[in-house]
Amino acid sequence: MDSQQTRKPNAREIAARIRGQIAAGTFGPGDRLPAGRAYAKKLGVSLMTVQNAYAQLREEGLVEGVSGSGTYVRDAVPGEPGPREAAQHLTNLQAEVARISTELAGLVERVQQLEAAVGPTEGKSGA
Questions:
Q1: SS3 of 95, please?
Q2: Could you tell me which of 39, 24, 27, 20 has the C-alpha nearest to residue 64?
Q3: Which residues on adjacent β-strands are paired with residue 64?
Q4: Distances in whole angstroms, Cα of residue 88 to Cα of each of 20, 44, 81, 109
Q5: Rounded Cα–Cα distance for residues 108 and 86 (Å)
Q6: pLDDT tens, 17-50?
Q7: Which of 81, 85, 18, 29 has the alpha carbon at shortest distance from 52?
Q8: 3-class DSSP state for residue 114?
């Protein structure tokens, strides 16, 4: 059995999934997100994990909690991007950060290879 199939999502991954659904228009302004307990049960995670994901989305300004009612995709504020646009921008930014991180890891590897080929530089005078 593949461990990837049984691994439960963490709060960051759940937030990313919902952010993607907001960006795609699955959830629009005023739409209620799934109830925390039911969503946690569906995903096989703790309620706290879902609550942390929803808190992340609140911090990003994509959703708002209504006491005793649930968590809703926020309505657009005049002069600001709507939740769909904001979610798309965040998704694009995360993809760009991932791309840059991969590129940086490749550069680190190349520098290490160059350093190994040149040999130790400790004790050598630069100028």
A1: helix
A2: 27
A3: 72
A4: 7, 27, 10, 32
A5: 32
A6: 999 999 999 999 999 999 999 999 999 999 999 9
A7: 18
A8: helix
